[in-house]
Amino acid sequence: MSNSNNRPIVAVVGRPNVGKSTLFNKLAGKRISIVEDTPGVTRDRIFTEVEWLDRYFTLIDTGGIEPDNGDIILSKMRNQAMLAMDMAHVIMFVVDGKAGLTAADKEVAQILRKTSKPVILVVNKIDNINQFDNIYDFYELGLGTPFAISSANGMGLGDLLDEVIAFFPKGLNTEYDEDIIKIAITGKPNAGKSSIVNKMLGEERVIVSPIAGTTRDAVDTYLERDGQQFMLIDTAGIRKKSKIYETVEKYSVIRSMAAVDRADVVMIVIDAAEGITEQDTKVAGIAHDEGKGCIFVVNKWDLIEKDNKTLGNYTKEIREKFPFMMYAPVLFVSAKTNQRMNKILETAEFVANENAKRVSTSALNDVIGEAVMLNQPPSDKGKRLKIYYGSQTGVKPPKFTLFINDKQLTHFSYQRYLENKIRENFGFEGTPIHFEYREKRR
Question: Is the entire prediction scored with pTM above 0.70?
Answer without folding.
Answer: no
